[in-house]
Amino acid sequence: MSKGPVLFADIGKKAKDLLTKDYNSDQKFSVSTYSDAGVALTSTAVKKGGLSTGDVAALYMYKNTTFDVKFDTGSNISTTLTITDFLPSTKTIASIKFPDYNSGKLEVQYFHDRASFTTAVALNQSPAIDVTATIGTPTIAFGAEAGYDTTLGSFTKYTAGISVTKPDSYASMILGDKGDSLQASYVHHLDLPKKSSVAGEITRRFSTNENTFTIGGSFPVDHLTVVKAKLNNHGKLGALVQHEVIPKSVLTISSEVDTKALDKSPRFGLAIALKP
């Protein structure tokens, strides 16, 4: 793949990951195993609100092809086939979920030194079509996204965005929801390994005149432990601690408190991921 601009879906992703990834209020346990034949098996159990769910996923990799199958407790089977460079500078992704045959989707991603494009088509009788495009460089990228419903004969979404990437910072701005929302985010790395970072994100929704502002950060305590925290203008305070118990196996403890309603009990989450 070329070293050109990011895909449109990746604009703003760095800030979103720092402010949302690994925060949860569930109890989650997962075990992963790998074989020399290129097969990875992951079993996950989740307890949320007194309900328990789980799934088993198998990932097979061979040269430029990846085949992913997931079975869940709802008797659903999700399959995803990914082929890299089936055509030069492309990635093809085909997915379908059984027994919901109408959930099938085919996506083609194209990468160029100065642009990237994606086209996704639903595999049903009245397919919806999503198209994205970005132009620029790895440092600065301009992009747009559009979704079209062939049944209604109208656009379901159109979005535009820009991102700027520097060695020690990242900034993005996205105009979405058919022009009804504007989201701006910024990430600053406090050290060269990029292990200590702070981020801010503000979202403005014009139709309701509502603003949401979130700040947060990620900081290593030592080479095995990371602490993250975030706070938004609605008073939601979140924090988590991640500790590598044994190599590649991580314990995550997270919590969320509503500082404007301290009489309510805080929410806690626990996640254990074991890998060989």
Automatic annotation (TrEMBL):
> Mainly resides where?
membrane
Single GO cellular component term: pore complex
Q: Which residues cross the membrane?
A: none
Keyword terms: Ion transport, Membrane, Porin, Transmembrane, Transmembrane beta strand, Transport
Q: List locations, semicolon-separated.
A: Membrane
GO terms (molecular function) for this protein are: porin activity; voltage-gated monoatomic anion channel activity
Keyword Electron transport listed:
no
Q: What domain of life does the native source organism fall in? A: Eukaryota
Can you tell me which residues the record assigns to a coiled coil? Answer: none
> Is Ion transport among the key words of this record?
yes
Q: Which family does it belong to?
A: Belongs to the eukaryotic mitochondrial porin (TC 1.B.8.1) family.
Entry protein name? Mitochondrial outer membrane protein porin 2-like
Question: Which species does this protein come from?
Answer: Salix udensis
Lineage, top ranks: Eukaryota, Viridiplantae, Streptophyta, Embryophyta, Tracheophyta
